[in-house]
Amino acid sequence: MIKSFKAALAAGCILLSGASTGYSAEELKWAHVYEDGSTYHQQALVAAAEIKERTEGRVDIKVFPASSLGKEVEINEGLGIGAVDIIYTGPSFVERYYGPIAISDYPFIMRGYDHWKTYRTSDLFKELSEGYHDATGNQVLSLLYYGMRHVTSNKPILKPEDMKGLKIRVPDSPLMLMFPKAVDANPTPMAFSEVYLALQQGVVDAQENPLPTIKFKKFYEVQSNINLTGHLLNSLLIIASDDALNRIGEADAAIVREVMDKTAMVISDEIRKQEDDLVAWFREQGVTVNEVDRKPFQDAVLPYLTGDGVPYTMEQFERLGAL
């Protein structure tokens, strides 16, 4: 009888322990629009595994690639309603919630990778991140490098006049309209997942993205020319909702922040390396890669950068330039 009671008590303790462990584990959804073979997704999986290990299973992040939980506008909205907990997103999509944080994504405003690295650790970026949090209740965990955007097309584009009337796909965000409008192109907002087919069917004439994206989305299969306009240095933000971070507690949230920031730089350095290697790779595939004098494009855009309607202040513009 006593042995049976002890055995039952031990079994009950095991069950309670298992129930307690299950109850304490918190599952978070990390959504993004990039393919599962992309650097962004693969490193997100590495980060999720490290976070699970370092929190001893208390935080279990599931990563959902390729717009499986929604397109970019939708996953941004999903943060606010709890449909997703963490996202990769471009500053251009966050602009609609807090305009100044998009400053780094405006055309020709960043001078290169070193300038960008200085910005991501600057007081300016910290202040803009806090402004976004105040406006949304979502926290910027880090900034990562997406790359220099270039125009692909089925003809050479060497000067602004070559883009006149060109129907070019752009992300569905206001700031992405600036460059094509400045060169008299015809910007066509379209979801990322729809671009390949639109190019293939001639719905649009061109698109613009960094070289690694052009490769992993296979846009070079349906566009004969890559024109190195370098008109925009693009970033991605890693953002989590306050609700998600509150659910896991401050100690585990600190681990998440640390891992996310480390992951952002791993991705950034890898994307930058890919950019250096890909021009030769595209030429090996038979794609025409055109070197471009960027100054005429910069001159066309400059009045827009300092004109009415930009979401940042001139003080913020000057501080970014001075970094």
UniProtKB/TrEMBL annotation:
GO cellular component terms listed in the entry, alphabetical order: outer membrane-bounded periplasmic space
InterPro entries: DctP_fam, TRAP_DctP, TRAP_DctP_sf
Xref: CDD domains: PBP2_TRAP_Siap
Keyword Cell membrane among record annotations: no
Name of the protein this chain belongs to: Tripartite ATP-independent transporter solute receptor, DctP family
Coiled coil: none
Signal peptide from the UniProt entry: 1-25
Similarity-based family: Belongs to the bacterial solute-binding protein 7 family.
Membrane-spanning ranges: none
Primary location class: other
GO biological process, one term: transmembrane transport
Alphabetical UniProt keywords: Receptor, Signal, Transport
Entry keyword Transmembrane helix: no
